[in-house]
Amino acid sequence: MEDMSKISVTQKELPSGNVQVKFFIEDDKRPMYGYLLTNEPKPIGEIIAEIQERMYQRKVAMSGLQPFSLNKSVKEDHNFYLYSA
């Protein structure tokens, strides 16, 4: 899991009442950023824990896949997006 000190977040309340969280992961080898959509405002600690959990779940789901396999697919999470910076 990512180190909490390397994750910074900003929150924005949307007109729908949901909260969009933009996060940055500072890493010398592979910096990343992403978005998390939540139903309500949460404390920063809970948001970071949720980001870490979703990254872990994504890593586990991807680890069992063969690079060119079309048989298995990873379920998309439309509330969590992760990009390389």
Put the structure in a nutshell.
The protein has 85 residues and is an alpha+beta fold. The protein has one helix spanning 44-63; strands at residues 7-13, 19-25, 32-38, 80-84. The protein is built from one helix and four strands; from the N terminus they run βββαβ.
What can you see in these coordinates?
The protein has 85 residues and is of the alpha+beta class. Helix content is 24%, strand content 31%. It is built from 1 helix and 4 strands. It has one helix spanning 44-63; strands at 7-13, 19-25, 32-38, 80-84. Strands 1-2-3-4 form a 4-stranded antiparallel beta sheet, with helices on one face. Strand 1 and strand 2 (19-25) form a beta hairpin. The longest helix has 20 residues, at 44-63. The chain is globular. The relative contact order is 0.22. The model has no long low-confidence stretch (mean pLDDT 83).
